Amino acid sequence: MPLEQQPDAKGRPSSSNAAAPLLFETLDVAHQSHGRVRYRYTLPKGSAKLAPQALERVVRDQPGVTGVRLNPAARSIAIQFDGKKTSIPKLQRVLSHIPASVCTGASGAAVQAASCEKRKAGENVLSTGGDLLASALLLLTTNKVPQPLAKPATLAVSLPLYKDAIEDLLKEGLNNHVLEALAVAISTASGDQMAANATLFMLALGEYLEESIARRSDDLLKHLLHPDADTVWVERDGEELQIDAAQVVVGDTVICAAGAVIPVDGTVLSGEATVNEASMTGESVPALRQRGDSVLCGTVIEEGRIRIYAEHVGTGTASARIANYVQHALQVKSGTQLTADRLADKLVPWILGLAGSTWLVSRNWKRAAAVLQADYACALKLSTPVAFKSAMYTAGRDGVLFKGGDALERLSQADTFVFDKTGTLTTGTLVVTDVLAFDPEFDPTDVLDLAASVEEHYFHPLAHAVVEAARRHSNRHFPHEEVDFIAAHGVASVIQGKRVVVGSRHFLEEHESIDMGAHEEDIERLQAEGKTPLYIGLGGRLLGIIALKDSLRANTAQTLKRLRTLGVKRILMLTGDHEVRAAELARDLGLDAYHAQLMPEDKARILHELTESGAKIAFVGDGMNDAPALAGAHVGIAMQRGADLARLTSDIALLEDDIARVADAKAIANRTMKQIDTNFKLIVGANTAILAGAATGKLSPIATSVLHNGSTIAILLNALRGGLQAVPGSTRKGKKGAKASPKALPAPVNHTRPGKAAG
Predict the structure, then answer these.
(1) Which of 456-470, 507-521, 664-678 has the lowest average pLDDT?
(2) What's the helix, strand, coil split of the chain in %, to 5?
(3) Of 87, 510, 613, 655, which residue is 20 to 30 A from 231 by alpha carbon distance?
């Protein structure tokens, strides 16, 4: 496919070609290194949907390109290339001139067919599948090919192997490809065509299966990416318009009906719909979303129609951030992976030395060729990333997003867990705990109902908690006049000719001149218990107080107990809450230590002190003030409802509002690292035994190749399978997308008169 064109002064195609629409609107180098470049791109507004496989084939067919990885969700394309055959400027020109028609819409099939024809014509090196087919045919016809043609036939099929080995030797030095090429060359030169052909076949089969397993693990991780909406319906100036998804801005009113992919993160303004959120939370049961509810980009409307206020768009959405995390996970190696790679490379010269020693002692070329068949590199280099990626897929499916293999590895090392309190150990949702009445004509239920009658018009967490508490009890409504909302203070109205106010102490004392001196003892008691007082005034006097408190998550204690069984030595709590409430919670949960009345910078300081003492800390938090601690810990875990900054600075993000997922993440990390360690021992043990058998003449080159490649494939399949198993000890019921654990039930309300202790 000729794509090279002469660019104009701006680097775009010349006018003679300008009539053909181009694929990319913009194409910028995001990162480059020796033999590798990663581009960020945008597509023209209104263009047809990109066909990723077609684009990959077009790029892969260019001279010098050795590898392509496209991530449509992140609008990124990474290219590996041979610096002797092409360059970054040349690749930039080629990519800039790709016509839109070849990689969008139905033309993808034509591009694939063209690529196949090009490969059939011999313009590119045979693919792995082609190598496998050629080597299989050669092996089957070994005894049927006339002797004068036997060696040339073997040589022809082995040329790609020799070519790769020479390139690797010149660029990287000795590696497993060089050893494999030497083994085939020795068998061919010594006239053992059966051994040479069988070795070629086993190498091709092993490479094909290894590549398939590695790609499968990549594909599993990519399944965490979410569908993009191409066009979006918005309401502007009272009219409904269909625009390109890239044109949506914060503040737009987005309209989504049945079958639509929600293109933004936002809040429902009106309407109601059942939304399939499995792609984001793993929840298989569609959730009802109506006014005031949050919705996420990448989720799908199953029934209904809603209007959404766009709060996050484009790269700011949750699904876009997940796409970036997945891309990072695919590209960045963990410490364990780097160690395995270095060990594999270091063992290559030793194997070559053993093969040479075997020949010097036995003067038997077959033994030397057999030794060269059994290297550690393939299994060592591939099994670790396969285990990581399959485990990360399982975690993502079950509500935990690891932002890379390194995060998983560090979580397995964590021996100390430090939790923020509010929104982490607790639900972060206020519930009414006490109602105090200070007027003999009003009992506590009357106070609650009166407050709820005016608060039901106010969209605020405190107001919501009061209204819900009233609904669970008498739910009696007091008729009132129009409600006034006083920003940052409270609400006011008129009931039976008397002014009623509900809000903060400052509001009632400073704005309404209501004296609270007679009730200081009750107020101080509630505050000492870590409760938030809401004050109700009627006719210029204090009618009562409603106390609210954040409730403990239903499964917090169970989760902490499970963490201890997973090897966690210490569990601590950091909170800005009062000392009394913090001590009570720490005692109830059996925590090893706690720190109360902290400022955000105090949390980071305490983590630093713990780290200096040798602890490997996993910090779990949800607020913006937790960001310094999340970033400074050995590994940071952000809760699902956490602030954007907290989720951005964390290493692990929970996709469900369930603290049990923290223990699930630790279980997955522990299991994965244990499996990697087991695989390492199997690799070393199996290949050492194979090497010993080859060096002593017990195994022929054919037998060595079969055993080596077979054991490598078995270990890779075990790594893939192990990562896909159910999370050990998880409280999450059922299969993928099973319903998460229920939220904590509301605490009972204590209705008390002044002077009586609240329960």
Answers:
(1) 456-470
(2) 50, 20, 30
(3) 655
Radius of gyration of the chain (CA): 33
* Tokens (6 digits) for 566: 């997973």
The neighbour count for residue 259, using CB atoms within 10 Å, is 9
Determine contact, residues 295/276, Cβ cutoff 8 Å: no
The confidence band for 737, taking pLDDT boundaries of 50, 70 and 90, is very low
Alpha-carbon gap, residue 128 to 636, rounded angstroms: 41
Taking residue 77's Cβ as centre, other Cβ atoms within 10 Å add up to 23
List CB contacts of 747: < 8 A, sequence separation 6 or more.
431, 433, 549, 551
Q: What SS3 class is residue 621?
A: strand
Using alpha carbons, select from 255, 302, 254, 253 the residue that is nearest to residue 277: 302
The tokens describing 523, both together, are 């107020």
Contact 663, 729 (CB under 8 A): yes
Task: With a cut of 90, say whether residue 553 has pLDDT above it.
Answer: no
Tokens of 36: 């590798």
CB burial of residue 107 (10 Å; 0-12, 13-18, 19+): middle
Cβ-in-10-Å burial (0-12, 13-18, 19+) of 252 comes to: buried
Cα separation, 9 vs 92, in Å, equals 14
CB-based contact 242:231 (threshold 8 Å): yes
Strands of 8-154, DSSP E? 26-33, 36-42, 65-71, 76-81
Strands ordered across the beta sheet of 593-595? 400-402, 652-654, 635-638, 617-621, 416-420, 570-574, 593-595
- Residue 13: pLDDT band (50, 70, 90) is very low
Alpha helices in 473-626 (DSSP H): 505-506, 520-528, 556-565, 579-589, 600-612
Tokens 């194979």 correspond to: 690
Determine which one of 218, 398, 406, 420 is catalytic: 420
* Tally of CB atoms within 10 A around 498: 13
Q: For residues 233 and 255, what is the distance between their CA atoms, to the nearest angstrom? A: 5
Is 182 strand, coil or helix? helix
Q: Tell me which residue has tokens 């870590």.
A: 530
Could you tell me if 67 and 80 are in contact, meaning their C-beta atoms sit under 8 angstroms apart?
Answer: yes
Contacts of 5 (CB under 8 A, 6+ apart): 13, 14, 17, 93, 97
The kind and range of the H/E element at 454 are helix 444-455
Helix axes 335-362, 377-397, angle to 10 degrees: 160
Contact present, 714 and 690 (Cβ < 8 Å): no
Whole-number pLDDT of residue 401 = 83
Look-up: residue for tokens 């938030």? 532
Dihedral sign (CA 212, 215, 220, 223): negative
In degrees and rounded to multiples of 5, residue 619 shows phi and psi of -100, 130
Give the CA count within 13 Å in the CB-facing half-sphere of 90: 13
Q: What is the pLDDT of residue 731?
A: 67
The pairing of strands 76-81 and 265-276 is unpaired
Question: How many Å apart are CA 29 and CA 34, to the nearest integer?
Answer: 14
Q: What is the dihedral of CA 306, 307, 309, 312, to 10 degrees?
A: 50
> 596: which 2 tokens?
């109360």
Tokens 């594909």 -> residue: 219
Task: In whole angstroms, give the CA distance from residue 50 to residue 102.
Answer: 10
Integer CA distances (angstroms), 118 to 112, 451, 646, 686, in order: 10, 77, 50, 41
Distance CA 374, CA 299 (A): 48
Non-local (6+) Cβ contacts of 526 within 8 A are 434, 533, 545, 547, 758
Contact 52/69 with Cβ under 8 angstroms? no
- CA angle at residue 202 from 198 to 206, to 5 degrees? 175
Active site residue 420: yes
